[in-house]
Structure formats: C-alpha cells, structure tokens
Design brief:
Three copies of one chain form a homotrimer.
Chain A: H1 3-12, E1 15-19, H2 25-34, E2 38-41, H3 45-54, E3 57-61, H4 67-82, E4 86-90, H5 98-110, E5 115-118, H6 120-128, H7 149-163, E6 166-169, E7 174-177, E8 182-185, H8 198-212, H9 217-237, H10 245-258, H11 261-267, E9 270-272
Parallel strand pairs in A: 1-2, 1-3, 3-4, 4-5, 5-6
Antiparallel strand pairs in A: 6-7, 7-8, 8-9
Chain lengths: 273, 273, 273
C-alpha cells in the first residue's frame, strides 16, 4: 500500500530545502539522497526565500535556531505557503526553552504547515503552550503506550483539526493523523534513540514524501514514518558484534538507500484508527 | 605521472583554511586529513583573516553563506592573495539564487583565484552571469559529454584565459584547464552523486594539492580530481550487498587515506587536450 | 578503579549542553549518546542560557567561534557557574589567532571552569598568554615525552593551582591534574590524530563523566581520557585492510558504545604522580 509513495519519491526526485540545525544536517542531506530526493540548505534570509522558491518542499527544523535563522524560517515559510509548496515543521526542543517554544508556536500561528512532526513532549508543548521536554528528547511520562493509545489518538486528531496540519507524533509508537484518520505505526527500534538525528532525518524524508505525493499527504507522511522505522529494523539486523551507534547510523541510511516499494509494503506495521 | 603530487601533500602536510558550508564540513576535514593535509575552519571575519595568514591555502565554499561569512570570504580572500597563498573558490549553488551568483561573481572580480571548481551549471553561471543550476546539482542539459567535449574544452579554456584562474568543471567527465591546456578526466562513479559533499571534499583536497605543488598547479589540480574519482571507484568495488550511500561515503574517504602515488598513477584516466 | 565512573554516566544519563564548533558537532553528539549521556546544542545567547539551566553540564568549545556564540559562551558559562553545574573549556586553536587566545583567556578570567582540556600548545598558550599552535594541532616541540615528563607534570599542576581548574593536557601522553595529583595516561593511538574531532569528542565525554561523578572530579576526568584512548585502541584492532580514518572514526564511537566498566578497568593504562 505505502510502497508506491516511496517509488514516487524516486521517480520525481523532489528538491527539498532544509533550514535545519548544524548537528544533524549532514545526515539529513544523505538520507534525502538515499530516498531519491535532492537536498539543499540555505539560512540567510534573502537566500532562504529564493532557494525556497526553486524547491518542491521546505523542512523547517528549529534545532539550533538563532535570530538570523529564525528570520529565515518565517520569511521562507511564508514564501513556501504563497507558492503552495509542501511545508513541514520539526519543533526540536519546544518545551525546553522559551525561544524554542515561542518560535514554534508563532510559526504555527503565522504559517499553515502541511505537517508538524515532533516527539510527544514537543507536540504536547505546542498544544498546551509550555512543556516538560527533556532537552531534545521526550519526557518518559509523555510516551504513547497501549494504555493511553485511544486518548493520544484523540489528542493528535484534535490538534490536527485545530491546526489544519497533519500531526506526526513519533516515539516507540508513532501516530500520524489528520482530523479524521490516524495511522498507528509500530516500526522502529529503541536503539534508534541512541543515534543523534533520526527524528531530523525523518522530517527531511517526510517533506520529500509529501512533495512527491501531494494528492495523498497523510498516507505519504505515514509511509515516511514506516520507511524510517523499517530501515532501523533492517540496519539493526545487519549489525555485527562490536558495532555501535555510529555504524548503526550509517546502516540505517544505507537501508533507506536500498529500500524498495515492495520491501516497504512487506515490512510496514500499522493500523488505521 | 600524477602520483608524485599526492606524495608531496603527504610530505609537506599543508595547513588548509576552509570557509565552508556546515552541511559537509566534517567530511571536508576528514578527507583533508586522509590525503595528508591539516584542516582548520574559521568564519568570523577577524579570526578568518588571522587564521588564513598562518595557513598554506584557503578554500572558499559558498554552500551555506550568510552575511557574516561572506564578509569573511572577502577579507580572508584578500589576505590570502596579499600573502601569495593558494586560493580556491567553490561556487556552490551559483545560478540557484542571486546571493550565491552575486557573491561568486564579485569574489572573482575582487580576488584572483588559483582555481575555480564547480559543476557545469555553476561554471556556466559564472561565465554568463545567470544560470539554471538545479539546487546544488548541475542541470542535466549542462553536462559534459562526448558530443559537446570539444566545445566544452574551448569553453573552460576561454574562461581560464579571461579569469586568469585554473577552471575545474567536474561531473561525469571532468575538465581541468588553464588557457592553454585541458585535462579531460574520466575517473569516478555516478553513485558519487548520491552522497552529499563529494564536490566540497574535492575542493578541499585540490587546495591542498596546489599548496603542496606550487610549481605545477594545473597538474596538481588534475591529480586531485583523479584521486577523488579513483577513490570513488575503489570504494565502489569495496561495497558489500546491503551497503548504500552512507557507507560509500566512509569508504571513499578511507580509499583516499590508503591511496599511494603508485595506485594513483595506475588508476588515473585522463588525456591532455 | 575507573570503570565505575563510566557506569555512573550510564546510570545517571546526564544532559550535556555543548556550545561547540560545527565541524565535529555531530560526532560529539553521537559519542555522548554512546557513553550513556544526552547531548543538546544551543548557541543563540538567550536560548543558550535557558538550555544551560536545564542541563547537568556545559561543554564550551571555541572551535568555530563567532561574535554571537562568544556572547553565548560567556552568558551560559556564568549561568552554569551560578547554578553549580559542571563546566568545561576546550580552547580549540588558542595560540593560533588572537580572537581564540583572548576568548579563552577571558573566559578563564571571568568564569571558573571545572576542567580545561586542550593540547599542549593550547594549554601553554593559556599559561603564557601567547603560543605557537599549529592550526588546531599541537606544535611538535610542545609534546609531552618521557624526557620532559616531570617538568610537564609540574607545569600542569601549577596551572591547576593558579586557575583552580583541573587541567587535562592531551596528546601522545595525557596529563590530568589538579594542584596535588596528576594522572599520567598512556592509552590511545597516534592514528587518532588523523581523524577530526577526537579531542572535541573527549571534551564532551569528560563533561558527562564529571557531571555524573561530582564527588570525584579528577578521577572522572582521568577515566574519560582512558575511555577515549582505549576506544581508539579497540577500534584500531578492529580495522580491516582497506579501511581508513573515516571508518576508524565510526569504530571509535562504536567502541565507546560497547565499553563496560570492566573493560575500562582492564584496559586503562595510567600512573598517578
């Protein structure tokens, strides 16, 4: 079902502009290339607007934001919206500082995003206005589990309805929802949390998936989540004794590179609620 | 023939200052170490000037330029020129935005570079003043092929003559030319385009090669192109089933690390026109 | 003896804020995750102060400093000191430019660091006010050797006494000293110098070790040095023919990931003087 959305990325090779943090930016670029898209990065305001205009999608990640890049996020975001381009927000660390929370909240107020993708603490912060994000990681108390699943599904659907955006709340269980429909996804490995930037990589991929599948945004966003999680499973199986998180990082990107629509169809674990 | 230029890099270990983008900077640093040079990065204007003064070469890459780093590029570039240091420009994304095009064009106007290294669309943009660069990748219509080879050789020789710089136009076929002489190089693998930053890495290496071989700049620049392409071929042969672009990236740098003058002499594929 | 300090990092998982350079930042993040800590990066002044407040330790690395990040270093450093958080300075390139030297010297004047970790040329620069740092690498003439060992031990103890900080001078032989006691450590491999950022990685790890072992700061700092060196030894043994510095980088982080207190106890090579 979802494999065709990957195939469309490989066919169309969307050009994705990333205003993103300098911690994980290289991995974001390589994983976009791995899934068949092309990355570009610009963060000086004028340049960011012009580069946005020639791209198919814009991925805004506030991971190491500063006053200059914040200006770029707002200006480029408005340009992307004006042009009808795909627009994703990754509110890294929202809840951990007021600059991060305020920037994410104001971006959502001023610009309608196609998708907002974050961990449970970040998403809660955006709904409630303040949060308990543990640095850039979700607070354990916020995690989606079988116990609170129905509640959390309603929570993300409500946020999707109020914001007009697809909400992708990712963690041990991933939820990808619009106002009506929620994909509950169980791909992935807990060891992915021991690598920096798997969330940032997913945001890049997801922007490409939606840009290449504009008629099926929700399904494309869910397919990106399944792809990243399945790549984490395949890479984990390929780990040899003595290998750790650095090699795991490489093998996940390698697994994205070698993924086909068929493998994704077979490996995707999800239900729709 | 070209292997000795690598051996000189390993012997002299030139210190190379890189004002470069934050996407691929780590790979640039590691590939410089792999070929025997030492990297340093600084981009605050005063610091960039002082660091330039203690180095043997300056590699200016406009990949994620901003107003502060642009100032550093001009000031450090002038200092390098004043001191007679090797100076390379990598006009990443020239043609994709006016800030990138203007910055590259003005750098060339105000500072004479030993080498300008870019893809076909970037180089065309510098000659024609505007371009059709597809993000940071060359437009397919601009590619060097057997059909347009003679025309393109004249094109780069003309640009070399007018700019007073060696022109390195890299792609499926690489051209490295001054006003009189053009190396046509056929090393490399198409899969290198699926990794971010092989061009940036080449610019770093090329700066080191010229710094270590000041009497033979054209040959040294060509040797750097052969080295990078050959490393891509060796790494490709070493890829195992299931490996992809992330591991390929590591194996290319590893291949540079293990390259000898003899291997380079045997593997370099070029003609002089 | 030292293995228990690693175990405490894994148990407590300290959150470490890094104001650091963009060259090696991804490796710093991944090595912190590898040893059981959590990384976060912020460098806009207000954000850096707030993020500092929620963390357990602050690692200041001046590798690609600029006017904005320098302001963040001073403000976040003062906040960390006020809150009694662990505070480490990595004076990358002190001695190579006046901005780097002055920033490091002034940071030390205005903020008391728990540890100052650098190479021999950087540390000499901080004591003498100016230096002969070769880019970001130590000048060979400054290296600690068996010939000058007693002199250098006194030198770092004196600096520790005068600054009130633990001094970690790392190179072929590593010295970790307070005013009274010096660990002389002989772990590591010379090939680690062919990878960018092993020093930066060590600074990140060391901040985490001290944050998790506040009662034994000197021993924890020494344990971090042994860990990094031993990881370099283990990774070197795991290198296959044809592998080079890029794969070595990954295998070192992997070795940190797989390190146990027991392995560290067996492999640590040090004496106390």
């Amino acid at each position: 079902m979802l494999g065709k959305y990957l195939e469309n990325v490989r066919k169309k090779s969307p050009l994705i502009h990333n205003i993103t943090n300098y911690v994980t930016v290289n991995d974001v670029a390589n994983v976009l290339l791995a899934c068949g898209a092309s990355p570009i990065m610009a963060d000086e305001p004028d340049d960011a607007v012009e580069i946005t205009a020639i791209c198919n999608g814009l991925n805004i990640n506030i991971g190491t934001l500063n006053s200059r890049t914040i200006e770029s996020m707002f200006k480029a975001g408005k340009k992307a919206r004006e042009l009808g381009h795909v627009l994703l927000l990754d509110p890294v660390g929202a809840g951990a500082s007021s600059l991060r929370t305020d920037t994410a909240v104001n971006l959502i107020k001023e610009i309608k995003f196609d998708v907002i993708r974050g961990n449970a603490s970040e998403i809660k912060t955006l709904v409630l206005g303040s949060g308990t994000t543990h640095g850039v990681d979700a607070d354990k108390a916020d995690a989606v589990s079988d116990e609170n699943l129905s509640f959390m599904i309603d929570f993300v659907k409500d946020f999707a309805k109020n914001s007009g955006s697809i909400i992708a709340l990712t963690g041990a269980v991933d939820l990808v929802a619009d106002a009506e429909k929620c994909f509950v996804i169980r791909n992935g490995r807990p060891e992915m949390g021991r690598i920096t930037g798997t969330g940032c990589q997913l945001s890049g991929i997801m922007t490409a998936f939606i840009a290449a599948n504009p008629e099926n945004k929700l399904e494309a966003a869910a397919a990106a989540v399944c792809l990243m999680g399945l790549a984490g499973e395949i890479a984990f199986k390929n780990l040899q004794p003595g290998e750790g998180n650095s090699t795991y990082r490489n093998k996940i990107i390698d697994a994205v590179y070698n993924m086909t629509g068929e493998i994704l169809d077979e490996g995707a674990k999800y239900e729709v609620r």
